[in-house]
Fold:
Amino acid sequence: METTHPIWRTPAVRRAAAVGDFGTLIRVSRTVHNLTLKQAAPLCGYSASTLSRIETGRQPLTDVTLLRHFAEVFDIPLQLFGLVPAPTESSLVPVAPARSQGRTATVSGTTAREDGDDPVRRRQALAGLAAITSGVLLEGPGQAAGTRPGLLVMPLAGGTATVPVPVLRSALAAARSLFEGCRYSDLASALPELITAVQVSRDAATDHHHEVLSALLADAYSLASNLCTRLNDDALAWVTADRARSTAQASGNAASIAEAARVAAIAMRRHGHHDTAVRLLTTTALSLNDHTDSPKQGLLGTYGSLLCTASYTAAQHGNRSQALELIGEAEETARYIKGSATSHPAFSATNVTIYQIGVRTALGDAGTALGHARRIEIRSLPTPERQARFCLDTARAWLRFGDPRKCFQALQAAEHFAPEELRRPSVQALVARLLHIPGRTPADLRAFAARIDADH
Structure:
């Protein structure tokens, strides 16, 4: 069956693609090919029972390599899987090879998150946020009844004009401002057009301009991955991080390569690959060193940001010595930074202190974490995203320290600075824990929980 087959333009198929129901797309193709599960299973290297679970969504498909494999086997247009027409880089973490019929094959990338968020429910809640590739919105803001505007992007139909580099830089800066302001819904609406414009402009560029636009495109994909993480879609964060890395490598821009590695490592961490994530972060940081074995002045902030993320990742995995060594190196790096903040994300001594709160809390040192928190003047933090991050990390430290009242106060402060941050499942789980702590419940806690949907 050709990828131009009319079946791929039917409303049912378009709806399935819009919500990331890839199993339905596989079932549609198998049926059109007149194949039974038993006949189709050997073609893709899975057992019939595993293929059935994939088709019904009980075993979600999220890994990029596997999606490409199924697209090739069943002649499914890559665009319906949110993929670009040609692969540019292997999956971030090697996929376990498919096994012969009669044995269970492992689909990587579907590990449940530590906060218990279910991938199927997550996709339903984020209907319309199917993928970010190069292109334009498939159906626009009002896709279907009951769904929210998303980032479903399909290949361009052609005719889109190129945009000057300064205009694209300004647009990317504006998009970053939306992220730093925790205006995630607005950013979700703005990113597709931005990514499309950069992609089209890059494809038409040559020589130096092609490399410059590749760096801009990589940075846009990195921002998209950060957004997907904040919207709790780890699968899409993984896909967009993969786009960012391959595009950044093509640009040769050290800062873009580093930021793409950072968001990729976050995606790895949230899928449980902590050791791999730390290795990626540390090797990328070392690659920034020049012949003097220290980063160039312009890359110090990038270097420090990689170390902070690596430290937090190691701490979450319980690797105390590694986490403390990495955050110590980040503190040392911050001493050489001129000005208050550099790089994306912003790096400064204050930002290292905020990371210290999360690192120490993850390691069980709540008292030390709170000591770092007392060094921060929240009003001095530059963006709502940083303010909310500080409040939420401090809230977790207070709960671990055994003071639920101060934990709730920190959560209330976070809501003041960035209401959208509190709708993340990890925050909802934290509030749910407060509701079930024995003793007197703070007067406003239940109303607070209801506002952020944490009371169910």
